[in-house]
Every structure is written in C-alpha cells, then in structure tokens.
Amino acid sequence: MYRFFKKMKALENSDITIKEIPTWTEIINLVIWVFVLLSTLGLLQAGLMDTNFKEEYQNIPLCKKIIPFENLKYSGINDMMHPKSFIENFEYLVTQENLDEHEKQYFFIQSLTNDAKSWLNLHGYGTYEEMKKAFLKFYWSPDIQKTFWKFLLYGEYHFSAGLSEKDYIFKYFNEAKFLDNPPTEKKAILYLLSHFNLDLNLRTSIINEFNSGRVKTIEEALDYLTRAEVFKNRENNEAKKALEKNVIFFLLGVCFSLIVADNIR
Length: 265
Known about the structure:
mainly alpha; 2 domains; elongated
C-alpha cells in the first residue's frame, strides 16, 4: 500500500493532470447528481411531471430530493398499510422536513407505486390537497367503509392470514378509528373479540369485565383475554388428564373382566 501511494505521489509530481483527480467528496456528489438526474428522467418518461412542475422541481434542495420518503410507499388497495395511515405518515414527514407545497406534491407522487401509481396516472394530478382528497375518496370511500363495518361486525379470525391474535386485534382496532363514524373503543374491542372462537363463558366474562369498568382499554382487554385463555387451557389440560386417567382405569377394568371370564370357562 505504501509503495502504491509512493508511486501515485511520483506520478502527481511528474504529470500535472494527476492533480485533477477528484476527491471522494466530489465523487460522491457526482453520484448523487447522476441519481437525481436519472430519477427525474424516469419521472418524465412516466408522465408524472408537467412543464410547470419541472421548473418548480429545480428549486427543491438536493438533500430533500432523495432521503425523506424513500421508505414510505403505498401500492394500492392490497397494501398492508391503511390509506389514512399512509396520509398521516406522509404528512408527519412533510412537517418534519418542513416541505413547501410543491415539494409535497412531488413526494406524494413519488410515494405511490404499482396500482396506486396507475390510479394517479388515470386520475391526473394537481395540488397536494387535490390529490389527497381524490386519493381518500377512492381508497377510503363510503362503500369501502361499509365493507369494513360488515367485517368488523361479522368477521372471523384465521391464523392463515399471517397475523397473531394480538396483532390482528391491534390492526383492526386502529383501523376502526379511521371510519367517518367510528364505534366507541369498547364496542370496537367487543366486535373484534367476537371474531375469535371464544368459549361462551369466557365471552360473557369479558363483557362483564367491561361493564364493571375493570377493563377499559385495548391493552387491558388483551391482557385479560390472555390470562383467561391461559386459565381456560389449564382447566382443559386438567380435564384432559382426568379423562385419560379414567379411560385407562376403564380399559384395565375391561381387560381384568375378560381375563376372569376366560379363566371361568
């Protein structure tokens, strides 16, 4: 390594052009600008930037063109993120980054992918507030909310959905808050608990806990449900062991009777 730098030093002294070798900072800046240029060209090819917006885009600081929203994407109706949650997260980042209206418009367009991006291409774009209003009207429409209400009232939990029982309740409990006319927290919890195949006595016990005021929040409900399920499983295990013991005694009795009968003959 020492010989390498020694040779480079010798070359630098012998050839003035070597002094023009860029520093690491210059190289990094060049890579960043190439990335920005390619991103802009991609946006133009996709038809997501008009002439006026291109001029405004040039005024966005470089540090804001790349970093803030790269991990916030919404792909469409099958996205695991709720559309209103996406908007909340987006506007939180907008506030944190202190973006102006044109920057909000640009990054909102950039944050939509797959089906959501196709929807925007068909719908067309305008100011951020116009796109936000159209976005929520499409992805959280009254019809979609009616469908969610039916799910809330009559849905069933399936382990194959890929969510644990706790995550399932938390996910849909929080999404219920996004309804235009959301249920109370107590009702939302009870609706979601009805999605599980709970023992009637256990369900009645949970309702009594709510009515008594001892359980008030989603965390307390989940804690109570967990403890009740543990107690129920313990009782079931004890009953199972008692049944197995009785079956063994019964089979031993049958065998003994057969042996006695065979000896009598």
